[in-house]
Design brief:
Blueprint (H helix, E strand, L loop, with lengths): L1 H39 L5 E3 L7 H11 L9 E8 L2 E8 L2 E7 L2 H16 L38 E12 L7 E12 L2 E11 L3 E3 L2 E15 L3 E3 L2 E18 L7 E18 L4 E12 L4 E4 L3 E5 L4 E11 L3
Parallel strand pairs: 1-2
Antiparallel strand pairs: 2-3, 3-4, 5-6, 5-16, 6-7, 7-9, 8-9, 9-11, 10-11, 11-12, 12-13, 13-16, 14-15
Helix pairs in contact: 2-3
Length: 326
């Protein structure tokens, strides 16, 4: 019996020694694993970011690339926003707040990592206004953001030259309605139009007790249509106009017939309606009221008035034009 008990005790003692060795091995393994996990711990004490952004370890790696010895345990990092305008990032360290903005989350992470690396490699443990990088609170970082592509420019916003010719009639040239011809050129800028041209109008013969007379007018005009209302190929526009030239009257079957040319100046306002037949060819009609600035009187001596320029006249033309296309 004593021999058996002795063997059993010896067996227990052998198992106890084996347990001690196993426990020691496990403890050493746990210490090694704990050290490895400690090395993998993120630099920042707090890190918040949307799911699509790099995680805390990726942020840690970006900081380590810029400052391998960085260890700012009191830093807090937060990234917010997932819109077409990009992402906003915030870094809080040492009581100071720095904000950045970039077009992608990866760029935002890189900007925050740079700010954190600069702060952690300062000569002091806590950055202050004299030693920390000069980054005012709530100021955006200068990290270039990805450009935001806007909608392509509309074709109507182009500047396109135009030329054209028109036929119509004008009052105020002579006693009756005077047929007229107009040539013009200019530019269309989106819904606006600016033109310069020449006009010629000649009245029919005017009969008097002394004979007949005829009147003609030659002018250079400037007009502008600052806005227009478009509906498909049709558009309407209010326009203003200035004319400068000469009004000439001549006697044809008068005794001692003579002719006289006087200065013509006038202001006009009206409207234009146009229709695009094709991308380049259009037709338009316009009508306006005209206020002559000089009201001349033509007469036959001694005082037989033939034509007195009215205070208000009217003009109407129909034109066809060509719009150069880029």
């Amino acid at each position: 019996m004593d021999a058996i008990r002795a063997r059993r005790r010896a067996g227990c003692d052998g198992n106890w020694a084996a347990h001690v060795v196993a426990v020691g091995v496990l403890a050493a393994t746990e210490l090694v694993c704990a050290g490895a996990h400690a090395d993998e711990a993120p630099v920042a004490l707090a890190y918040e970011a949307p799911p699509e952004c790099p995680d805390a370890r990726a942020f840690d790696a970006e900081v380590a690339k810029r400052a391998p010895s960085a260890n700012p345990r009191d830093a807090r990092v937060a990234i917010r926003g997932a819109t077409s305008l990009g992402y906003d990032g915030e870094l809080v360290i040492g009581g100071l707040t720095r904000t950045v903005h970039a077009g992608t989350c990866s760029e935002t992470v890189e900007a925050l990592a740079l700010a954190l690396a600069l702060a952690s490699t300062d000569e002091t443990d806590e950055p202050d206004e004299t030693t920390a990088p000069q980054m005012p609170a709530n100021d955006h970082a200068t990290t270039p953001a990805a450009p935001i592509a806007g909608p392509p420019p509309k074709r109507d916003a182009h500047t396109r030259p135009v030329i054209g010719i028109g036929l119509g009639g004008a009052s105020g040239v002579g006693p009756g309605l005077a047929p007229g011809l107009a040539l013009f050129g200019g530019i269309d800028v989106g819904t606006r139009s600016f033109r310069i041209g020449v006009n010629a109008a000649r009245s029919p013969e005017s009969s008097t007790s002394h004979g007949t007379a005829r009147f003609e007018r030659w002018t250079v005009h400037l007009d502008a249509c600052p806005v227009s209302l478009r509906e498909g190929r049709l558009y309407l526009a209010p326009c203003i106009r200035f004319d400068a030239g000469a009004l000439r009257g001549s006697g044809e079957s008068l005794e001692n017939a003579a002719s006289k040319a006087l200065v013509w100046l006038s202001l006009g306002a009206g409207g234009r309606i146009a229709f695009d037949l094709t991308r380049t060819i259009f037709v338009e009609g316009e009508a306006r009221a005209v206020a002559p600035l000089l009201r001349h009187v033509f007469f036959v001596r001694p005082n037989d008035d033939i034509h007195h320029v009215p205070a208000v006249a009217a003009e109407a033309f129909v034109s066809v034009g060509y719009r150069f296309s880029k």
